[in-house]
Amino acid sequence: MDLGQKEESRLNKFLSNPSRALWTLALPIMAGMGIQTLYNIVDMIFIGQLGGEAIAGIAFNMPLFFLALGLTMGLGVGVTASIARFIGKNDKSGADNSAEHAIAIAFFISLLLFIVIITFGKKMLFIFGASGSIDNPKSILSLAWDYLRVLSIGIPFMVFSGFFRSILAGEG
């Protein structure tokens, strides 16, 4: 079965029962979001044991985290569309080229976000309203900065996983 026949078969399956096809697509996404939400709840339960200042420190990091997540997801949609378009035209080299560029963009974004966070993170947290001194380990600013440093290590993994997911989604 060549690529055209395989795509035609998948299209026929979708058209014959769109409700089932949509649920087939939606359930893994819903499960992933549910697991992420459960992870966040358990995270807050453990952090809540450290006190309100610790929760506040994490809360000040959320705008930066969601900025990175939004940037990754937004560009990922473009990656998915680009690769899917090339595959739809049976242009494997174009799809491969898009995937290679996506990985390069993911590397650049990861590096850029890491540098910006490490360089300007304390100032951004202070601008967001985190109070206290960075020298006082119990201050909200110090707790927020400690968490942001750890979070910045995970940013490249988040960016690359988002881009790899987009590449796979574009390939169908």
From TrEMBL:
It holds the Pfam family MatE. The keyword tRNA processing does not apply. Keywords: Membrane, Transmembrane, Transmembrane helix, Transport. PANTHER family: FMN_FAD EXPORTER YEEO-RELATED (PTHR43298:SF2), MULTIDRUG RESISTANCE PROTEIN NORM-RELATED (PTHR43298). GO terms for molecular function: antiporter activity; xenobiotic transmembrane transporter activity. This is Polysaccharide biosynthesis protein C-terminal domain-containing protein. The keyword Transmembrane applies. One of its GO terms (cellular component) is plasma membrane. The chain crosses the membrane at residues 21-42, 54-81, 102-121, 147-168. It comes from marine metagenome. InterPro entries: MATE_fam, MATE_MdtK. Signal peptide: none annotated.
